[in-house]
Design brief:
heterodimer, A: alpha/beta, Rossmann fold, 2 domains, six-stranded mixed β-sheet, four-stranded antiparallel β-sheet, 10 strands, 39% helix, B: mainly alpha, ABC transporter involved in vitamin B12 uptake, BtuC, two-stranded antiparallel ribbon, 14 helices, 78% helix, binds adenosine-5'-diphosphate, binds magnesium ion
Chain lengths: 245, 331
């Protein structure tokens, strides 16, 4: 579905993404882990058109994404959340999600339809009760949920998540894991960046480990946690114990 | 529920339509029946409200203009030249005035590209000042610094200009109201809140920037175009007057920025304050000082504007009424 080929991104002298190739298969749940500064967020910025790569290509079902604007990429069926939350602060939670609906699809959507679809997305992530609040007044955990709801309200085929669970209370993490499973089961492909490794291990079918902008390892979740290089560079200790948690 | 009413709720539309209808009747009846003073007041009220609506539309999308006299002035010159050069009468001349205002506003949107906030504001200020200088330097077209009188044989009755101005204000208020119930309004507000993130919701910022500024420019140009037919004389200082720029933003800020009612209430309040201080303190001197002081104090003590303050004061009452309603339904 999504093909990243030999992608490189330089910021001045810093190589944030270094000749990276990565694939998200149709209906795959791909987990991406890696230490801070590995280039995970940069990768999402490149895929969604917020950054233009120094070299390399990105395609969605064969269509080139490099050079397209974020709003175009959104309409092609990709949605994302932002690691640093970006609520439309002076709009209500419901209006935030409604805004997602209007311009992300090929058809005109009425206010009533948008309200229904927005409410659906908010209910799914557990924000229905807060729908009348101003988005700026939400807690950080709820702002993260709003990021997810807004992404979902665009009805994406590919969902890119950037640490959407970080900062959420434990109970919310469990809820969100159920939500993501359901979204995946309904046919959406997911690329999930997450610091909480147990969450990735529980959800992802395939795990990609990023380090210094390069692939360190990729494979099945159970293989990743036991891989010596991954343990050494990222996990610090074997994670089997954590995975059981 | 939400403290800031930026859009009309569905239930309020019939009531709002009634209000607009009543205002339209008044817009026609008052100048027809009234004295020259009433005509003058209606013309100024309509102009100030149109400017406020125009400015607020752009502000909704995060575009703070410090150069609304640009569109006013272009509208004035377009209307005057259509009359003097081509013999166009009053009403038809307003169309090219609006078109010119919209076109220059759209061009401004494209040229300023991604400029936001204070940078955009300064660009608009520079544009109005630049146009003023250009108007001085093109005496063949504009009469230069000495100015131009509009062809007296074409001039309409002052009453007609007042009616058109007041009706225009009602129509543009209705337009803003109807727009507030469309996706367009959501896109504008999203841009104002966070242009970066709203792109990921499928919103192309340039598209809305061009549209909203063109609309804003057309409305201000309408006001400028009608006013030249009433005043009869135009020079660069009148056309691209800083006072117009200031007037355009005082209304929304005093009344309640980003709201529907705010610019209307604020615009009318500005006019009222100006008239009252003039009545009590005479034409010059203290009058302006008191006028300025009232504006400053009002804006300082009502950060959400008159409309925001009224809503807050009425909140307990509305809540009680809503509670009573639910109690009634429950019983
Ligand atoms: N816009 C930018 N300009 C300069 N350097 C950047 C920019 N964005 C990211 N970087 C750098 O690229 C590297 C990767 O950052 P990032 O993708 O945010 O890492 P991660 O999300 O994996 O923690 C970091 O060293 C960061 O400082
Ligand atoms: Mg990151």
């Amino acid at each position: 579905m999504l093909e990243v080929r030999r992608l490189t991104m330089r910021f001045g002298g810093l190589v944030a993404i270094d000749d990276l190739s990565l694939t998200v298969k149709a209906n795959q749940f791909l987990g991406v882990i890696g230490p801070n500064g590995a280039g995970k967020t940069t990768l999402l910025n490149l895929i969604t058109g917020y950054l233009t790569p120094s070299s390399g290509s990105i395609t969605l079902e064969g269509a080139a994404l490099v050079g397209r604007k974020p709003y175009h990429i959104c309409r092609m069926g990709i949605a994302r959340t932002f690691q640093v939350v970006q609520p439309l602060a002076e709009m209500t939670v419901l209006e935030n999600a409604m805004t997602s609906v209007f311009y992300s699809g090929p058809h005109r959507v009425s206010i009533t339809q948008a309200r229904d679809r927005a409410f659906e997305a908010l209910s799914l992530v557990g924000l229905a009760e807060q729908s009348g609040m101003l988005a700026g007044a939400l807690t950080l955990g709820n702002k993260k949920k709003l990021e997810l709801a807004r992404a979902l309200a665009t009805r994406p085929r590919l969902l890119l998540l950037d640490e959407v669970m970080a900062g959420s209370p434990q109970s919310d993490v469990i809820d969100l894991m159920h939500v993501l499973r359901a979204i995946h089961a309904s046919g959406t492909s997911i690329l999930m960046i997450e610091h909480l490794v147990p969450v990735i291990l529980a959800l992802a079918e395939h795990v990609f480990v990023l380090n210094f902008g390069q692939e360190l390892y990729q494979g099945r979740p159970e293989d990743v946690v036991t891989h010596p290089e991954v343990i050494e560079s990222y996990l610090g200790k074997p994670l089997t114990a954590l995975a059981d948690a | 529920m939400n403290a800031n009413r930026e859009s009309g709720s569905p239930t309020s539309l019939p009531i709002a339509l009634l209000c607009y209808g009543a205002a339209a009747v008044a817009a026609v009846a008052l100048p027809l029946a009234g004295s020259p003073l009433a005509v003058n007041l209606m013309l100024r009220a309509g102009s100030i409200v149109m400017l406020a609506i125009s400015w607020n539309l752009a502000a909704n999308a995060g575009l703070i203009s410090l150069g609304h006299s640009t569109f006013w002035g272009l509208g004035s010159y377009a209307a005057l030249l259509m009359g003097n050069r081509f013999g166009w009468p009053f009403l038809p001349s307003i169309l090219p005035a609006m078109a010119l205002g919209a076109a220059v506003a759209a061009l401004l949107a494209v040229i300023t590209g991604r400029l936001r906030g204070i940078y955009f504001a300064i660009a608009t200020l520079a544009l109005s000042e630049g146009l003023r200088v250009i108007a001085v330097m093109l005496p063949d077209l504009t009469g230069g610094g000495a100015g131009l009188f509009i062809d007296q044989t074409l001039r309409p009755e002052p009453r007609l200009t007042a009616i058109v101005t007041a009706l225009g204000a009602v129509c543009f208020a209705l337009l803003a109201h109807l727009l507030s119930r469309t996706p367009f309004h959501y896109a504008c507000r999203a841009m104002r809140n966070n242009e970066h993130a709203s792109q990921m919701l499928g919103i192309n910022p340039l598209r809305f920037r061009i549209t909203v500024l063109a609309l804003s420019g057309a409305i201000a140009a309408f006001a400028g175009g009608v006013n030249i037919w009433y005043g009869g004389f135009l020079d660069p200082d009148i056309g691209f007057d800083l006072h117009i720029t200031i007037l355009a933003q005082i209304g929304p800020i005093l009344g309640g920025i980003h709201t529907l009612a705010g610019p209307i209430i604020g615009g009318l309040a500005t006019l009222l304050i100006a008239e009252l201080t003039r009545m009590w303190f005479g034409e010059q001197g203290y009058s302006l000082l008191v006028y300025g002081a009232i504006l400053i104090v009002s804006i300082m003590y009502m950060p959400n504007g008159i409309y925001g303050t009224l809503r807050r004061l009425c909140a307990p009452w509305t809540k009680r009424r809503a509670a009573a309603k639910t109690a009634l339904v429950a019983s």
